[in-house]
């Protein structure tokens, strides 16, 4: 129910410090860093928002009393209130903004390790990642080389290290019952996410509900079977709503100042080459003869860590720029490190999502990278 | 008028967990959180509101974006 705003004439409207408005071209967004929500609104209202936050309620009501858009402005005011984005305060100086600092207690935060025809020396890789303080590892296998039988003992090597979680993306094993997959994940709490590609039937199999009473809500852990055939790293780099990062204080301010994907990341491609990302061409050595720390400290390795969304063409006008994990491997303009991700189908100037593969302007770049779809 | 240090008697129905015992020997009723749940479907104009989930145990951002 709408408030009677005249009762609050002496108060100011104040946007909660953890609800940050991000202006986009067509739409803008409130990123709620505590409730992990994104709430969008038409960018025409952004100046209205700034005006509403600038003065006491009484003065605002006086100002808009003769405005032909009075009802719409009041509607927006009620929208802010009903969505609990704002509070009423008498002294705005008592509510400072959040500090926009980001740091991490390790040289590397996450790592990707790809497997195709060669099984790397995981004991060595995990030891080296641990020395760098790496917390999250994703293992992607494009072939049947990494079976569950091999994967189990391999994951044991990651225990008692800095590694807190492992994401697995493995190829479907013919005839393997779902129960085996479930037991595999159940018995290894370190596995945070598990996707099985090239499966005959796309489906989700629940491993663990948060609580039996909440079985109708989203499960805590599940195995995702997809019929998508992932036979190389070329499939990576998708920017969809699903891949927007859940807004939080940590991820938001990291993405604001650094690259959402590459910052504090190290990767080992299927041939053992150490890279920022397996999809990138530039290699900084091979795990067979180069320690990860040497590659990390090579000239140029950290150059892309600092490419923030505000520096990227088109993305800088997108309301999702601080919740987007970006991609620097596949670009709309392959020679321009600051161009929009090729596989992003969002147009911030219309506020609409589309299938990026159908955009004729992207076909040339897709051909350049050898993307056939 | 009671002084600030006078004891405030909590209503009988109030659960004990909502009473905070302060060191000066008086009791104060701790207010309930004043934050009702948002109504997810209450949208304005063409607004879109959606929740992005992530596994709490894993990385708080996607490590790669390879599965469609």
Structure characterization notes:
The complex is a heterodimer of chains A (373) and B (68). With 373 residues, chain A is an alpha/beta fold. Helix content of chain A is 21%, strand content 19%. Chain A has nine helices and 15 strands. Chain B has 68 residues and is an all-beta fold. Chain B has a domain at 16-56. In chain B, a hairpin with a 5-residue loop joins strand 1 and strand 2 (27-29). Chain B is elongated and about 65 Å long. The model of chain B is unreliable at 10-56 (pLDDT under 50). Chains A and B meet through strand 4, helix 3, strand 6, strand 7 and strand 8 of A and strand 3 of B.
Largest beta sheet of chain A: what is the strand line-up?
10-11-9-8-7-6-12-13
Give the low-pLDDT segments of chain B: 10-56
SSE sequence of chain B, one letter per element: EEE
Q: Total helix count of chain A? A: 9
Total strand count of chain B, please?
Answer: 3
N-C termini distance of chain A: 50 Å
Computed over alpha carbons, the radius of gyration of chain B is 23 Å
Query: Helix coverage percent of residues of chain B?
Result: under 10%
Termini separation of chain B comes to: 67 Å
- Oligomeric state of the chains in view: heterodimer
Q: What's the helix count of chain B?
A: 0
How much helicity do the residues of chain A have? 10-25%
Order of helices and strands of chain A: EEEEHHHEEHEHEHEEEHEEHEEH
pLDDT averaged residue by residue of chain A = 94
Identify the overall geometry of chain A.
elongated
Q: Give a short account of the largest sheet of chain B.
A: 2 strands, antiparallel
